[in-house]
Amino acid sequence: MVVSEEGRLLILEDPNDEELSRAREHDGPVIIVLRKLNSVDIQGKHPMSIYILKSPSEEELETLKAQLMARRTSMRKVAIEGPISRRELLMGRVAKVIEKNVPTYLESACRARFGCSECVNACPVNAISIVNNKVTINESTCIECGLCVSKCPTGALAMVGADDNEYVALLNKLNTVKSIKKVTFTCPLNTREPRNGEYIYKVPCVNAVGPEWVAMALVKSLEVSIECPDKSCKLGGADYVKDLVNAFMELFKLSAAENGALSVDGNKAPSEEIIYMGIRRNDYVKALTRLRSKATGVTNELLKIFSVHVDDVKCSFCGVCFAKCPERAFDVDRAGNKTVLKFNNLKCIGCGYCSRLCPEKAIAVDRAKEFPTSGSADIVYDKVITCKVCGKPFDTRRHIMATKVRLGIKGDPEWLYLCPDCRRYYTAKKMLENASGMKGVRSYV
């Protein structure tokens, strides 16, 4: 029976053969609810597009619907070598095609143009390249491992079942669903039924689960588990899960069950205090900030936390790093008569754009070895220079000295310590004096 069709989501209950045939041809996710039937045969459909629930509660069904209604990715028809079937020939296909869960590229979120290449470095089959500052994916070569998705610091790559949009829809839905206290990430090979209070989140491969998703669930006081059902899988998901769990255990004071599940407070109900927006780094910063009180100090490269070292001698306080950082990890503040350059480790994605743009080559970016103890740290101080005529603060001592060196200015000319407005008046006055041959020309403006 067709229960409903909402957008691209099709929901069937105890479907007959005709309805199953419709499900196979449906372009989108399908939920099959079994109440009287024990099983159904849905071969020919990609496993990430089919969700089978056995006698689910209303809350379980509504939670899954919330996730799938937020799905913005889809399967790709990828041509492969091999003979085509009679059915494919009748459908007008001249090449054999299969459905593949190839990552979708979201250019607006990508930082490749700033130097980020995490996805390229992560791909085990070299299916990803950066061309003209954009990510290009070889669909035929892609093995659907999801490593590029989990390694991307901004969520610019998404797969069916491994998309920040879907995940955030689920977590926000759990604000009103009290029965679910655990999220288990696993791949379609794992066909076990959810246990009491557990939500099984099906991902293409556990490699697609990044530290962001784990941290976001933990701060909602949910128990988090990542299960790789095949320890010998060639995609290496079991090893990745072990390393990721160890990274969290080393950094935060967490409880760990015998099955490797992580939790902050085992008996605490899911929190309603946090709403996620689906912007990966922003949500991650929000989660890590709330986990800071649990931090032990030691971090791991899997957690994507970076540090910046600024050479206090070389820095001219030009402000290029502050103005150009794509994640706004730098900030400028005042402390009395001094200007302070601040840096937020959690916002930094390690692209190195600031280092390449710095005219003094004073910045070095690296993986953080320690978890930051505060939201932002002061990294450079400089004296504020005020205009000698109007008294308005307009520059810093470091920048003025660097300007003198760069322009080859000798001595300490008076105009160098004037604000732009007063400097224009000063220049006009000097031009008038030179033209008239008179000194001390007065202005009546």
Task: Characterise the protein shown here.
The protein has 13 helices and 21 strands. It is an alpha+beta fold. Among the domains are: 76-158, Alpha-Beta Plaits (2-Layer Sandwich); 305-383, Alpha-Beta Plaits, CATH 3.30.70. A 4-stranded mixed beta sheet has the order 1-2-3-4, covered by helices on one side. The longest helix has 17 residues, at 420-436. InterPro entries: 4Fe4S_Fe-S-bd (IPR017896), 4Fe4S_Fe_S_CS (IPR017900), Fe-S_Ferredoxin (IPR050572). GO terms for molecular function: 4 iron, 4 sulfur cluster binding; metal ion binding; oxidoreductase activity. Residues 101-132, 133-162, 306-335, 339-368 form the 4Fe-4S ferredoxin-type domain.
Summarize the structure.
With 445 residues, this protein is α+β, with helices and mostly antiparallel strands. It is 27% helix and 22% strand.
